[in-house]
Amino acid sequence: MTFPDTSPPVVLTIAGSDSSAGAGVQADLKTFAALGAYGVNAITAIVAEAPGSVSAVSHVEHTLLRAQLKRVSSSFPIAAIKTGMLANRKIVRETARFCRARPSIPLIIDPILRASAGKSLLSSNGRSYLKRKLLPLATLVTPNLPEAELLLGRSLDAKDSALSLHEKFGCSFLVKGGHDPGHSDEVVDYACVHGELYEFPHPRLAVPDLHGTGCTLSAAITARMAHGDDLVVAIEKGTHYLGEAMQEHFHWPEQAASRALNHFPNRVDSEEP
Ligand code: PXL
Q: What is the mean pLDDT of residues 76-88?
């Protein structure tokens, strides 16, 4: 297949399906579309959930993940890759193998460990494989504070977590400060990019169990990287996009009841530099 120069960049998400469409692959595809990228996906798991509760999780066979990755990568010119829920060790291994063979493609890892509703979305040996084999390949890893604590093995604030994670794993980290009790009406996310520390303050908009914000942020950063932004600029624009998506969410009355993050895909123009 050939693609004209004017085609939108293609972004691949390797992640789980969320039936409520607030998180997972569905959040990623909505975000990519909103930011003018064409999203393709390789599904790792199917999660039966509505906001606030997960009732069943089924993992895809790693061979089926491999087939999806082979199919999309041989048909589309992938400009950036995002990973979300990776479920278990075999799926992490398959993902690492795929990404290792493509070192020039930016790789954004959202290290999903559990759903906001509490259910584990990555087995413990999957987590240790992710730390050893996948994180070293990352352009950026985007944990929230509980995920940062599990990756580090100790509890620090968002700023020190970003610095310590960079020191421990060698790649760039964006640690989201939403779970940090230190600020009330403001959230500060901290990034350690190639050893330099950056702050990304933004108003606290979250309602307690709105889910999908982490997926949306990392997907937005991935889409901006696919457009050619530098990593720090992509984080800045991704943060801005998440703020807008959340504001829209609060203005959409039916959605207030369901608490799955919605997206408005007519925002491409407002995101252009
Ligand atoms: O937000 C984390 C998350 C990621 N991926 C999938 C999910 C969830 C759940 O809240 O279901 C597939």
A: 98
